[in-house]
Amino acid sequence: MEYRRLGKSGLKVSALSFGSWVTFGNQVGDTTAETLMKKAYDAGINFFDNAELYADGKSEEVMGDILKKMKWKRDTFLVSSKVYWGGKLPNQYGLSRKHVTEGCHAALKRLQVDYLDLFFCHRADRETPVEETVFTMNDLIRQGKILYWGTSEWTADTIMQAHYIAKENNLIGPTMEQPQYNMFHRERFELEYRRLYTEIGLGTTIWSPLASGILTNKYANGIPEGTRVQQPELQWLRDFVASEEGKTRIEKTKILAKLADDLGTTVSKLALAWCLKNPNVSTVILGATKNAQLDENLDALNVLPLITEEVSEKIEGILGNKPKFPLYG
């Protein structure tokens, strides 16, 4: 396993990490979840990602039970949660001091840990002043309940606003962002955030590196039985796969799969390695429902050396979506 600094912080995260979105407490049973987490840990993964939203808190409960059972030393793993969607009542969602504080306490209880290594604002909250959220996160750090805080899918401007508020008030600002990043979703990560990596040393924990499964090439001949896309709550994904944009991505994935085959690998591993090739990626969050799937994804690090300049150019030629940097700014 390779380990990278989380942005400019001193924290080391495994280049590949493991997340529980749409799987724990929902798609896979507790026994399978335990097997997958143990396999990930034994492979050197030290970061396990979660959120209050996932399976309405059940995902964190499952992960917490596993962490308690495994009895891993606390200094050998990192665990995260995200706060925003805790419920439907007025103070059960958002980034107010009340919900952020209560969301943190609830996550600690479900995960059965004394502190969270990483705590994310799952989305920006237009109804709460950024100052309120920044001060609250700083308080949680001072209280020893979280070690680092960050954002997920915030605009670059709002992240910078939070950074400057923290700097002006001698507080601890956001260390990391959790954005979607993959071969088909590039603009925000590569273009919008480009100055944040150098100006504030932003770390990143990217999600959906396989574009919700499209980059596995499993939709090449339609939607196969037993895939997560058939779950009722993922109707949006079924709709996208059937859309013109979805079909275009599937066709490009077929071509990428041929390139991967020529390289002696799979399109899944090629797509993950492509993400890892970006120096601004701190860690790539994997999701899995089966041992074989996780084994395949874990091998992505071995594909990194195959992505030469020539191969990168071939990939860009297939994708045709490289962000165009502005002449000024």
3D structure, described in words:
- With 329 residues, the protein is an alpha/beta fold.
- It has a single domain, classed as NADP-dependent oxidoreductase domain (TIM Barrel, Alpha-Beta Barrel).
- Helices cover 41% and strands 12% of the residues.
- The protein contains twelve helices and ten strands.
- The strands form two sheets. An eight-stranded parallel barrel has the order 3-4-5-6-7-8-9-10, surrounded by four helices. The protein has a two-stranded antiparallel sheet with strand order 1-2.
- β3, α1 and β4 form a beta-alpha-beta unit.
- α1 packs across α2, α4 crosses α5 and α9 runs antiparallel to α12.
- The chain is globular, with a radius of gyration of 19 Å.
- The protein starts with a strand and ends in a 10-residue tail after the last helix.
Search tags:
globular; alpha/beta; 41% helix; eight-stranded parallel barrel; 329 residues; TIM Barrel; two-stranded antiparallel sheet
Describe how the helices and strands are arranged.
Layout: E1 3-5, E2 12-14, E3 16-19, H1 30-42, E4 47-49, H2 58-70, E5 78-83, H3 97-111, E6 116-121, H4 130-142, E7 146-151, H5 156-168, E8 176-177, H6 187-192, H7 194-199, E9 203-206, H8 235-242, H9 244-262, H10 267-277, E10 283-286, H11 291-298, H12 309-319
Parallel strand pairs: 3-4, 3-10, 4-5, 5-6, 6-7, 7-8, 8-9, 9-10
Antiparallel strand pairs: 1-2
Helix pairs in contact: 1-2, 1-11, 2-3, 3-4, 4-5, 9-10, 9-12
